[in-house]
Amino acid sequence: MIITLRHLYYMSLVARTGSFRSAAEAAGVSQPVISDQIAAIESHYGVKLFERRQAGARPSTLGWDYIQSADRILCEFERMEERVKSGAEGHYGTLSVGYYKSLANGALRAAFRSMIRYYPDVRLLPVVAGLDDLERVVRNGALDLAVLATEAGGYDDLRLLPLWSDRVVAALPEHHPLTERDHLYWTDLLGEKFLFSRHDPGPDLADMLTAKLASPGRRPEIDIMEVNREDVLNFVGIGAGVSLQCESAIVPGIGVAFREVREGTMVSRVGYSACWREDNDNPALNVFLEILRNGSRHELDG
């Protein structure tokens, strides 16, 4: 005989209600069904699990031990069902998200906060890496989603969701002549020596600079440094050159002045996009994408 959850459920009902008749009413079946199921279990083990009395039924000493174990199994099964249903809706499970270190604030931070606040049973697995590494691990399926500073396009094998943008600012030594201006244009930066970090989004900003200022026979002077963004700004502060940074990189008190860079009347910006594999079937990914699409609407509502 195979003991099923139904057997355990009937056993628990009889113990809670105190009689076969009341258990049958609670289960919506006839009393003989309950009686036969309990008798079959007792026959299987060769012991009496209930003491039958005219006033009802109560578990024997062995019966109590058995029913306590049965209740634990039923509760665990119920929790398992809840987890499966919750997981199918994206409310339970794990979600791996890759991003640049410099994105661990602002809009992405708000999206993480919304996910943690409203979907606490989803375990977030953050991964900080560079552009090339993030693209690779998303493509091979080791990462659910990556947020990259890149234009939407050129990723035929990935889905893209354009997200937010960050203002581009020029980082200048605080006594540089250009600090006298409220904002700058790209042409104002001609002839300057530029410092960028090898780490993202430095290469993206260096490419943007080249696209704006390069011309036949002339390219901007660019030094790609094997240091992080903070060290680049420190070198700017001691007069080693200037740099381009995203607005989120602004740090006061290091001898660096920041000025907005414009193209005509438009503020220059670098856009961020989320990318993921078309065949990614993680339900939690859809939940996080919805938060990103709505600009962390949950957070704003809270």
From TrEMBL:
Q: Which CDD domains match?
A: PBP2_LTTR_aromatics_like (cd08414)
GO MF terms here are:
DNA binding; DNA-binding transcription factor activity
| This protein's UniProt keywords | DNA-binding, Transcription, Transcription regulation
Q: Does the keyword Transcription apply?
A: yes
A Pfam family matched in the record = LysR_substrate
InterPro entries tied to this protein:
LysR_HTH_N (IPR000847), LysR_subst-bd (IPR005119), WH-like_DNA-bd_sf (IPR036388), WH_DNA-bd_sf (IPR036390)
Annotated HTH lysR-type domain ranges read 3-60
Q: Which GO terms describe its cellular component?
A: protein-DNA complex
Q: Which domain of life is it from?
A: Bacteria
So what family is this one in?
Belongs to the LysR transcriptional regulatory family.
Output this protein's name: Transcriptional regulator, LysR family
